[in-house]
Amino acid sequence: DSGVTQTPKHLITATGQRVTLRCSPRSGDLSVYWYQQSLDQGLQFLIHYYNGEERAKGNILERFSAQQFPDLHSELNLSSLELGDSALYFCASSVRAENTEAFFGQGTRLTVV
Amino acid sequence: AQRVTQPEKLLSVFKGAPVELKCNYSYSGSPELFWYVQYSRQRLQLLLRHISRESIKGFTADLNKGETSFHLKKPFAQEEDSAMYYCARTGANNLFFGTGTRLTVIP
Fold first, then answer.
1. Which helix (H) or strand (E) segment is B38 a member of?
2. Which one of A14, A41, A71, A74 is separated from A109 by 20 to 30 angstroms, measured CA to CA?
3. Cβ separation of B42 and A45 shorter than 8 Å?
4. What are the Cα distances from residue A62, in Å, to A53, A89, A99, B99?
5. Contact yes or no for A104 and B86 at CB 8 A
6. What number is the average pLDDT over the span A72-81?
7. Cα(first)–Cα(last) distance of chain B, in Å?
8. Degrees (nearest 5) of the Cα angle A61, A72, B47?
9. Is A99 in contact with B31 (Cβ distance < 8 A)?
């Protein structure tokens, strides 16, 4: 158990819908990263928050947004869902913003039908 | 741009054979390098970090700054080593991952 908790574990929804994925980092970690893992594209970095502020943005679509709250948990919002958004979404946390290893959650498997 | 390259998408070896998973990184500052392992679409788990210089599950990785490489090696592969392996480097408020290598150990 890495200490990073993601909910829900599985999510099935229809195209055009909106979902929210939640991540609770390890106790004491200030950084939260979001990644998308699909079968054909490996691990794609989406966004990084550190202590409530956005630090880096990757290949995140405009339909997607995220935030980190004062209690340091983070939410990833996915809207106007498309079939191609079906993937495993991982959250990872780390102590610092740079030069440190990250600990991963179990992921949320999103299926868009 | 900060990059991590894993040239092999798939790698198959026989049980007991040596295995090497390649990783090259772009040079920028003094990054930390890691290897992560993912078994059957589970969470990614940290396998090795270059600064600790330790051996985990028989795996080692040496940082070669001249070649900007951080290849993962194991002298005798086991069936339970079959998994997805990701090389990663730190930098610029991010943890950059390679595209991963799926290792299959054939019994």
1. strand B33-38
2. A71
3. no
4. 18, 16, 28, 23
5. no
6. 97
7. 40
8. 75
9. yes
Q: Which amino acid is at B14?
A: F
Q: Considering only the beta carbons, identify the residue of B44, B45, B94 that sits closest to A56.
A: B94
Instruction: Identify any residues that bridge with B104 across adjacent strands, giving them in sequence order.
Output: B12
Which of B43, B49, B92 lies at the smallest CB-CB distance from A105?
B43
pLDDT in tens, A19-41: 999 999 999 999 999 999 987 66
Judging contacts by C-beta atoms under 8 Å, the chain A residues touching residue B28 are none
Strands A53-57 and A42-50, by their bridges, are antiparallel
Higher-pLDDT residue of B2 and A9 is A9
Residues in chain A: 113
User: pLDDT tens, B8-52?
Assistant: 999 999 999 999 999 999 877 778 899 999 998 789 999 998 877
Closest-CA residue to B78 (of B102, B61, B57, B54): B57
Residue A96 structure tokens: 């610092």
DSSP, collapsed to helix, strand or coil, labels residue A83 as helix
**What residue type is assigned to position A75 of the chain?**
E
Q: Look at the alpha carbons of B19, B55, A42, B82 in this order and tell me if their dihedral is positive or negative.
A: positive
Strands B4-5 and B24-25: antiparallel
